[in-house]
Amino acid sequence: MTLESIFGKILIIDDERDNTEIIKDILEDVSYTTMLARSAFEAKAIVSSHTFDLILMDVWMPGQDGISLLSEWYSEGFKTPVVMMSGHAEPSDIVRAMKLGAVDFLKKPLHDFLPILRNIMTRNEPEKSLQKVSGIDYSLKLKEARNIFESQYLLHHLSDNDNNIAVVAEIAGLERTTLYRKLKDLGIDKK
Q: Does 3.10.520.10 match the CATH number of domain 3-122?
C-alpha cells in the first residue's frame, strides 16, 4: 500500500506561487501527495488525466475564476470534494461557492487547516458506516438540537478513541482548547 493511498492526493489551484508552495510543503510534510495548478486552464488539464481525493482552489485567479470553474465542474457531475479559499472573498462569494457544491471555504492565509482537510477527506470513506442522529425533537430550538447532536458526536468519538482528546480534536476539526471548552459547555466528563 502506498502513502498516496493512505493519506490522499490533493490538487492545489492558486496563482499565488508563495501561497501554493507553503500549502504544498505543509501537506507533503504530513505525507499527502500534491500537485499544483496556477490557473483554471491548467487545473482542467491536470484533472482530465489525474484523480484526486480533494481539491483546494482559490477564488480569484487570472482567466477563469475559481467559482466559475467550480460551477462548471459540478454541472458536469464532478465528484471530487472542493475546498474554496480566498484572502478577500465577499460573504456572497462564500454563499455562492457553498451552494455550487464546495465542501468548505477557508480564509487565506490558511492556519490550522490540516484537521479540516483530514475531516473532509475521511467523511466518505467506504469502510465507515454512516451513523444516524437519534433523539432529536425537531420542535426544539436549533441551539438545543445542535447541542444534542454535538453531545452524541463527541461521546461517540471519545468512546471510539479511548477518550483521547488530541485524536478527537483532530477528527472534529477543532483545536484542543476549543474541544475542552465545548465538552465543558455540553457537560461531558472528559474522564
A: no
| pLDDT tens, residue by residue, 140-191 | 777 777 777 888 888 888 888 888 888 888 888 888 888 888 888 888 876 5
Q: Which CATH class is domain 142-186?
A: mainly alpha
CA geometry: angle at 83 spanning 79 and 84, to 5°? Answer: 125
Read off the pTM: 0.61
Per-residue pLDDT of 82-122, as tens digits, reads: 999 988 777 888 888 888 889 888 888 787 788 888 888 87
Is residue 53 within 8 A of residue 6, CB to CB? The reply is no
Residue 127 pLDDT: 44
Please give the pLDDT value at position 124.
Answer: 56
The CATH 3.40.50.2300 portion of the chain extends over: 3-122
Domain(s) labelled CATH 1.10.10 in the chain stretch across 142-186
